[in-house]
Write a structure and sequence with these properties.
The protein has 79 residues and is α+β, with helices and mostly antiparallel strands. 24% of the residues lie in helices and 39% in strands. Strands 3-2-1-4-5 form a 5-stranded antiparallel beta sheet, covered by helices on one side. The longest helix has 12 residues. The radius of gyration is 12 Å and the shape is globular.
């Protein structure tokens, strides 16, 4: 099973790397697959890559569902 989780881009770094916030946890993610992504955008993160830019409402709705499932929160710490 594959899991992609919404994250918000908080800062752009060098070499197509963005700092993203995943449920309040800062992570680095490659934006090679989403070159139009910018600070403030929500992206789906999978295996360290932003794979799609998503609508903020969709992202928040999905994050609300994740917050309701504590076992996913534990898993998300390794995103």
């Amino acid at each position: 099973m594959c899991l992609a989780i919404p994250a918000q881009i908080v800062r752009m770094k060098e070499d197509n790397i963005a700092e993203v916030s995943v449920l309040g946890v800062a992570r680095d993610a490659s934006i090679d697959l989403t070159p139009d992504a910018k600070v403030g955008d929500y992206v789906l993160i999978h295996a360290g890559f932003a794979i799609e830019i998503v609508d903020p409402d969709y992202a928040e709705e999905t994050l609300d569902l994740v917050r309701q499932m504590p076992e996913l929160l534990e898993f998300g710490q390794g995103v």
